[in-house]
Amino acid sequence: MTERKLTRAAIAAAALDVLNEQGLDQLSLRKVAARLDVKAPSLYWHVADKNMLLALLAESIFADCLSKIPACADWRDWLRAFGKALWQAQNATRDAGRLILGAGQPVEVLKAMQDATSAPLIALGLEPERAMMMQASVQALVTGWTTFAQGPNAAYLQSQLPIDAAFAEGLDALIHGLDPVP
Question: What is the pTM of this model?
Answer without folding.
Answer: 0.86
